[in-house]
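Researcher: Re-running this chain for the archive, since the previous output was lost when a drive failed. Same request as before.
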Amino acid sequence: MRVTVLAGGVGGAKLAHGMELAGADLTVVVNTADDVELHGLAISPDLDTVTYTLAGLADDVRGWGLAGETYATLDALRRLGEDTWFTLGDKDLATHIARTARLRAGATLTEVTAQLTASLGVRSRLLPMTDDLVATVVETADGSLGFQEYFVARQHRDEVLGLTFVGAEQATPAPGVLDAVTGPDLLVVAPSNPFLSIEPILSVPGVRDALEASSARRVAVSPIVGGRALKGPAASVLASLGHDVSALGVARLYVGLVDVMCIDQTDRDLAPAIEALGLEVLVTDTVMGGAEGRERLARELLAASA
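Model: Regenerated C-alpha cells:
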C-alpha cells in the first residue's frame, strides 16, 4: 500500500517507522518550519529526527538525536564562549555540515535530504514540505520568539498566544509533495503537534487544498491521550489557543481534512462526539512502545483503511 505520513517531531517519526516495518511503500512529508541556523550550520530538526529513526540510528531514550553521541565539539564551543543552548552531538554535526555545504553549493533541501537519507540507508522517501524558508514564530507575553528559542532555549514554558509561519505565503510545496498528498492509498496525519508540526505543512499554499481533495483514505492519529500530550507542548498549546484539550478537540481541527480519527482506548467515550462531527473513529492503543508497538499501530491503520 502506498502511504504518505504528514509528520513532525518524535510522534511522526515513530509512526513513520511503524509504517516502514509494516511494509508500506512510504513517503513522509516533514515539517521544516522548525529549521534554524546555528554556528553557521543549517539544522533541520524534524527531518533529522525522522531520518535517524528510519535509519535505526535514533536515541530512543531521549527521543531525538543519535544513539551513542558524544559532545566534544559542543564542550569546545562552550569553552570558546559560544552559546550552546541547542545541543548538537558530534555525529549529528556531521549531518548539518554536509547539509550546509550542499545547500551552499546550490542543491535544494529536497535534493540534499534525498542524498543524506540514501547515505544512511533509509528506504522510504522523505520530502521537506518546501524548499523555501518558512519559520514558525511564537507569540508570547514576552513578545515574538523563534520556534527553537521557544521550544529549546525556554523549554516551551511560555504560553502560546498566537503563531505565525513567516514566509509560508510565498513558499511553494517541494517537488513531489502535492502528488504525495493527493495520490497515495492511505494518508496519515501523524500524532504530531497539530499547531507546531502539522499546521506549518498545511500553511504552504496548495497543500491544504490537496489534502481536502485527496483521493486517499485519510486518517489522523490524536497526539492527546486521556487529556494529556504524550510528549511536548501539544496540550498546553491547544488550551492557550482556545481549544478543548482532548482527542475531540484535535478531531475538530481536522474536520474536512480527514475521514477517520484514530483515538486511544482511554478516550473511547469520546467516540460518539467525534462521529457526530462526521468522522469515522478507530479506537485502539495509540501509545507506541518500541518497534513492536509502532508496527502494531501501523498495521491497524493499514487494515482499517484497506
